[in-house]
Specification:
This protein has helices at residues 23-36, 47-51, 67-75, 88-101, 113-120, 150-159, 173-185, 207-214; strands at 57-61, 80-84, 106-109, 126-132, 160-170, 189-191, 220-226. By secondary structure, the protein is α/β, with parallel strands linked by helices. Helix 1 crosses helix 4 and helix 3 (67-75) packs parallel to helix 4 (88-101). The longest helix is centred in the first third of the chain and has 14 residues, at 23-36. The protein is globular and about 45 Å long.
Length: 228
């Protein structure tokens, strides 16, 4: 399996940065991607075949360095997780965690999350979706690049099974407010709260998040369910 190639579409929700990889991340990327990685394809995956069992499936877009992703997968062995991340150091770090923790219920795809969701996930296939601390694109002229937009909300809702959930978290208030408006406007989604939700027990609090909260920074969770 080789480094990911991405489409040339004009507006993407990420920028590819030349991140420095540690020797351990490099070794994990070079030796474990074939075992735990999932290559991008333009057709829907058979997720039960991928994991070798019939079980709830959760997609995470933007798994970062994978600490939270691995912790959730370890705590929920009855659920299978497909993490999507574009940056090679993050993919290497997560592969290393998969190996260290023997996480048979976690796979990684290095590709654009929008394209994975649109092409690789069948309608109604997901029990849940996680989007944690996506790039806020805080400059006004860049906000069209934010992942959570009306078209994305409609796509995500279509991929969720009835009763499936979409869980987002951000530490940027104006992005939180935008996401709330976008998700509440999607007819197939229902908010679990009056507006923002308490942090669900399944989302671990990161060290970065805890430090921010101590400094008075806000964190906003949104938890929506697919209507029947």
């Amino acid at each position: 399996m080789t480094h990911a190639r991405f489409s040339s579409r004009a507006v993407r929700s990420f920028v590819l940065r030349q991140g420095r990889m540690s020797p351990a991340q490099t070794r994990a990327y070079e030796t474990l991607l074939r075992q735990w990685g999932v290559a991008y394809q333009a057709t829907a995956l058979d997720l039960d075949a991928l994991f070798g069992r019939c079980s709830p499936k959760v997609l995470e877009i933007g798994s970062g360095m994978g600490e939270t992703t691995a912790a959730i997968a370890q705590a929920q062995p009855e659920t299978d997780f497909l993490a999507v991340e574009v940056h090679t150091p993050g993919v290497g770090a997560l592969l290393k965690r998969i190996e260290e923790l023997s996480l048979a219920n976690l796979r990684v795809c290095q590709h654009d999350g929008n394209e994975v969701l649109e092409h690789m996930i069948a309608d109604g296939a997901l029990a849940g979706m996680h989007i944690y601390f996506p790039d806020p694109w805080h400059k006004k002229r860049h906000r069209k690049r934010r992942l959570v937009q009306p078209a994305f909300a409609a796509l995500a809702a279509r991929k969720l099974a009835p009763g499936g959930y979409l869980h987002c978290a951000t530490d940027w208030q104006d992005y939180a407010e935008q996401m709330l408006g976008v998700l509440e406007a999607e007819p197939l989604l229902a908010n679990s709260a009056a507006d923002f939700a308490p942090r669900p027990v399944w989302r671990p609090q990161t060290k970065f998040e805890a430090r921010g909260l101590r400094l008075g920074h806000g964190v906003w969770d949104l938890l929506f369910y697919r209507r029947a």
